[in-house]
Amino acid sequence: MTTRHTPPPDPSAGSWGKTACILCECNCGLEVLVKDRELVKIRGDKDHPGSAGYTCEKPLRLDKYQNGAHRIDTPMRRRPDGTYEAIDWDTALDEIAAKLANIKARHGGDTIFFYGGGGQGNHLGGAYGRALFHAVGAQYMSSALAQEKTGEGWVDSLLYGNHTTGDFENTEVAVFIGKNPWQSHGVARARPVLREISRDPTRTMIVIDPRRSETAEIADIHLQVKPGTDAWCVSALAATITQEGLTNNPWLDEHTTGADDVIAQLNDIDIEDYSRRCGVPEELIRIAARRIATAESAAVYEDLGVQMSPNSTLVSYLNKMLWMLTGNFAKPGGMHIHSWMFPIMGRWHPIPTDEPIRAKALRRLVGTAAMQSGATPLRKAVAAASRIRITRTVAAATSDAALTAFFPAVAVPVARHIANVLSVADGPATTPVTQARIFSGHIPCNSITEEILTDHPRRFRAMWIDSSNPVHSLSQSQRFREAMAELELSVVVDVAMTETARCASYVLPASSQFEKYEAALFTLHFPHNAFQLRAPLMKPLAGTRPEPEIYAGIIDRLGVVDGTLIADLTAAAQVSRGAFALAFFSAIKNRPQLAGLVPYLLYRTLGTTLPEGQQSAALIWGLAHLCAIAQPDGVARAGYKASGFGQGEALFEDILARKEGVTFTDDRYEDAWKYIQHPDGKIHIAIPELLAELDRIDRVEPSYTSDEFPFVMSVGERRSFTANVIIRNPEWRRRDAEGALRISTADAEELGIGNGAQVRVTTESGSAQTVAEVFDGMQRGHISLPNGFGVRYPDGQGGESETGVAPNNLTSLSRRDRFFGTPWHKNVPARIEVV
Ligand SMILES: Nc1nc2c(c(=O)[nH]1)N[C@H]1C(S)=C(S)[C@@H](COP(=O)(O)OP(=O)(O)OC[C@H]3O[C@@H](n4cnc5c(=O)[nH]c(N)nc54)[C@H](O)[C@@H]3O)O[C@H]1N2
Ligand SMILES: Nc1nc2c(c(=O)[nH]1)N[C@H]1C(S)=C(S)[C@@H](COP(=O)(O)OP(=O)(O)OC[C@H]3O[C@@H](n4cnc5c(=O)[nH]c(N)nc54)[C@H](O)[C@@H]3O)O[C@H]1N2
Ligand code: SF4
Ligand SMILES: [Mo]
What we know:
The chain is of the alpha/beta class.
């Protein structure tokens, strides 16, 4: 309270608010001083449940994302000559909705393709976008995940049906394969955690990387492979474990199937020859393998160095052998399957509760009965009652009573249906034109242009792109531009006029991630998993709209939902949350075809009853309930102890109240077993298709260079000041302003290249000029370019400048994994010339 003695706060001093960093998957908690819409001071938030005050150097100048000449503030329509004209929102939404409906009528909704839907910090827009996907009857979608994680995701799905994470904070032996967490993070509080492992003489860090990365620099063992040879290196590690009798046999017997087949095949591997092929001394491979196998615990993390290199899906499989053969699962310092707020890839699945079976059966019986006989009439009664004030309290009490009975019974099947529809888990298995494999709804990014640039009748005719810049970020940018030019309609939703937006028929300006409710669904932690719903720090920039409002506007115009349902659900929401839940769950149970529209339904009904400005938190209500339904015991241990409907409700309320984020599940190490999705609860260790692949590479001598292209170039290295292309203003960077091409000392000497020299680098698909940096951590024959460069930014004089090399002018679509088409961006044959 303000008194005479304490002066009122000075508005010109600004105010502190809580949010998160949007530059990598860690989403560290931030406190920000906002003044006149500027992010003037930024510091780590000690209250954040995941990062506890930690940040790296990157978010300190996030204002370069929030404010600047890149922000767009009006919808735009492309003219025939390729320039853009500003149009108002109604015109834009009317025209786009009409065109979508027209394409659907002529070619089918499955020719409308959806791409993106979230960067490193913003998944709420994409989640609402999923309602549009279903409203138009789309079937095919993709995102950046399908150029890195789909191979690994498929391997995970066959082994145990879920995603794993390592307990690096507690592990005795940490193994990083093609992963440089010092720069790219991916591990919470990465630098202190790495430093701690490095300093502790009883713990060991093993890094597999052709380059002496910052992480390799402080590692105990660096296996400096030749680029692209990890399949031989990692299989030699696994073979050492089997051939030296270091497998954990009692564990394998109890918890896995198929181990004998795998071990037999690994026993046939010639370790000495494989070490020659990957360029790592045999003795070092053996030392590393023994260290992993004899430790109390080991955890493994693979990333782009192998996921964007030859044999990536096979390497994902082999990497998991290191911890599976040694039994490093579901124990401190090992690997774990974790809970989810909502799975970003793979299936939602409820885990068995600790509740006694008899109590569960009884509740299901009562609940199903209540549901079948009473729910629909009750929904209507509740809706009617809400219009008469006196009966509202009665209606609220009645629905609470009904909920107690019915919720546990219907919740799981209804929630499962909603989750699987929203995540497109049961979508097509292959793409319509080239029959490429689809994993978890995501078509391979390298297939997109092939599904457009063809006469095939089922080719994609329209593309909706949200929060992504595929012209810049996917292989062979020029090809993507050509594909966009062939489409009848393309819509980009972004905060900036990106390289992709410049090819689109319509561009819709989104409010920034600090101007709206926003959240990331990277909930990948174990045993404590956290989620943060970020509240806006300021009002939307005039002319922009938050994505949920954009999607609702289009879906309204498509007229796919009948008004009575919206009115009924809204009326129920006005009575009470319980009445709404009853009406909502029974509506989806009775009309399962509505499941795909859930985000829209929640937004237009429950959303309108939430406090001013919180409408888009309506979807979080749904996610909180799905989360509690799927993982009731873990959620209870995190402090949300109510049973049934009350549990998700308590979680939702806390998510809204705690701006720094909440811990939503608290697991015990042995709980990781419950997350295995195979009915037998075991890890199915033999994957015949990949064992055949392992056999195939036995006959392959790796070689990626030629006289024409004597170097292997890794295109897209994560550095101190790269963050995909989330920040466009080049002034954001404090170092490495131009994004230098790194080259080994020996190669630089031989070619007469000094630090700072201008060089031209050429690949089979393109050529670029850049500055060189002689880097003694590079091995001979390997060069490296950073990611995130080569975007256009207004230069302040009416023109535009472009800094550094756009990576995907140099990559090719055809160099890709044989299973899931992931591109070999870290393995591009190249040559260099001094300019
Ligand atoms: N600073 C920063 N951090 C980021 C991002 C960013 O843009 N900037 N982006 C985020 C995103 S989207 C992602 S996916 C992650 C990626 O995170 P990382 O995968 O860790 O990042 P990269 O630098 O692409 O690749 C890691 C390492 O792979 C090595 N490598 C290259 N070729 C090979 C090879 O043939 N074999 C092996 N074993 N290693 C090889 C490189 O030398 C490099 O050190 O980073 C996230 N974090
Ligand atoms: N050669 C090569 N290519 C690569 C890589 C590589 O290593 N080498 N790495 C790849 C990897 S791992 C990834 S993850 C991809 C990333 O590439 P993309 O999927 O293209 O993602 P970002 O670069 O993160 O782009 C995010 C976009 O979202 C916009 N944006 C920011 N905030 C908002 C918002 O609130 N709403 C909306 N609607 N838009 C917003 C930004 O302006 C930006 O255009 O790049 C890939 N491309
Ligand atoms: S870039 Fe990643 S590690 Fe650095 S502060 Fe942001 S979220 Fe945290
Ligand atoms: Mo990524």
